[in-house]
Amino acid sequence: MSEVKGSMVGTAGWFALILLVVSLTALAPIPSNSQALTAEHGIITVPQLDGNRRFSLEGDWLLKQPGEEEHLQKVPSVAWKQGSGTYSLTLLWEGGPTQFEFFTNNVGTSYELWLNESLVGSSGRYSPVAEQSRPSAKPLIHEFVLLPGSNVLQVKISNFVHPRAGLWEKVYIAPKPLATYSYQRRAAVDLFMFGQLFLFALLQLSLAIFSTKKSSHVWFALGTLLVALGNIMRNNIAIYTLLPNLDYLLFKRAQIITYYLASGFFIYAFHKRFPSSTVILLARIFFWGCITMTVVSLFLPYEVIYPLAIGFFPIMFLFLMYRVWVQLGTYRSSLLHRSKVSAILQIIADILLAYGMSHDFVGILLARYDVQMIPYMTYLYVALYTVVLARDYILADKQTEEAKNEIIKTAAHQKQQLANDLHDGVAQMLHALDFMTEGLLQSNHIDMKILQTIRNTSKDATKQLKHVIDDLNPIRFGSTSLESALHTMADRMQTSYGIETLCSTKGESLNFDVLLTQNLYYVYSEAVKNALSHAKPTYVSMVLKVTDVAILGSIENDGVDGATSITINQGHGVSIMRYRIELLGGIFDVIRKNSHTLIVKFQIPRRKRDD
């Protein structure tokens, strides 16, 4: 008990440290190569250029809205509910006429950029009238010339769609063509990740063709395809490079929907790996919740689905951190059936995605839109999980081949053992019977003593032959059920080795078809044999439970040496058991309950007719 408590304390310590690091890094801004210029009372002095550096225009801008007095407004900021207004900033420049570029991800839903009362450029269609305004999220770069002295920069914004209204994100100016180069680099990175994610999805679909766990690969591939689309919309630049005339509302709805579906598909791909039926149920509820939110997002107004989408960030964060908690708690036992690299990469992937969710959620709350981390963290998440799934597939394929070879060797060994048993046992007794019978025939008289010997020898031969048949085929349909065979195995274990062996069978019907019954029996037999070969148990517990939807089984023993590191590479017994269960479409797992107790578990879905 103290060892279990110590393990839980260790898990809690690691989890608390991870949670602290993720939270602090989410609050911290991303380092930028830009120099922040802070406006005071709507005035900024632009410094002399000292290389390729861009400037972010922050601080107090002047804001004039219809029917209101001009006032100072912090940038970045959320200024009003809906409507239009004009941001103004005076730029003081001491150099000669110099070409600059203006860039922002999205300064609202539509705007016009003016410098010294001359129109420089626009995004969407600006109008203070709702019916004439056309929003856009397309990032644009506008060129202008700063003249010596005072330059008045104005941005006229109209918004009648976005719930956060006059949304003014981070604004940059840079000497030409620095902003253009930065834009092109970001577009190249986004499109590179887009192409990579599609390749990852194709890889997963390819693995699904050959894998016994097809559903995991298929759901993960679908999630990857959707996150690829979501990422290029999340960063805006890449999607408008591909589709320059994309409608704003369609773009925003599609962005939200792709992330809903991707989240649901990623969770569903691994939901069967959770340690309890309760958590598996919660994962399924989360999946259907994502599907429901997708349907809702197709019909409800955008101002309704936007806050729902923001609320999804902390929900996904909590789910990911819970998965980290589960994986930390089962880390040691997971090494029984997977590599250390896969276990660690899976934890890192979930931590990175949780960080992306928390960072962007904090950014939305603080109106901090300089860098959005979800596209990059989802890319890393998919990349790491692709490595994990590929490694698991290769390992499972290797274990399957080893299991097949071991089964072939075992079958050959059983044939040789059968031949030896028949030759040295039953055949010798039959030869003795033949000798004694021939002697009686030649003596021409009945010898009761010899007849008694013949009778006893015949009984011994029959008994020995029955033992041989039981070892070769313990379940004979019409005379022996799986239930009775398991109880017989438990009795033999207790009688032969003096180890307390418990056998519990529950269910309305325990009579299955030949393939299912034989494989289940050999799984129990292999697990018991492993307990005798590799451990020193004081008890072995075998459980078989049959429900309407599944066949559940477990074999537990307490003889594992706490100092021994048991891994997937130890012997072929685990590979053979896994192979048999997956052959039946089931899930196999090995769990280390504590330092001395090991549990082999499996779950097989019920077919319409198993008996």
TrEMBL record:
Domain of life of the source: Bacteria
One Gene Ontology term of the molecular function aspect: kinase activity
Species classification: Bacteria, Pseudomonadati, Spirochaetota, Spirochaetia, Spirochaetales
Domain Signal transduction histidine kinase subgroup 3 dimerisation and phosphoacceptor: 416-474
Entry protein name: histidine kinase
Stored InterPro entries: Galactose-bd-like_sf, HATPase_C_sf, Sensor_HK_TwoCompSys, Sig_transdc_His_kin_sub3_dim/P
Organism from which the protein derives: Sphaerochaeta associata
ATP-binding found in the keyword field: yes
Keyword entries, A-Z: ATP-binding, Kinase, Membrane, Nucleotide-binding, Phosphoprotein, Transferase, Transmembrane, Transmembrane helix, Two-component regulatory system
Pfam annotation, one family: HisKA_3
Sequence intervals crossing the membrane: 191-210, 217-234, 254-271, 278-299, 305-326, 347-367, 373-394
EC nos: 2.7.13.3
KW Coiled coil (keyword) present: no
Enzyme class: transferase
Catalytic activity field: ATP + protein L-histidine = ADP + protein N-phospho-L-histidine
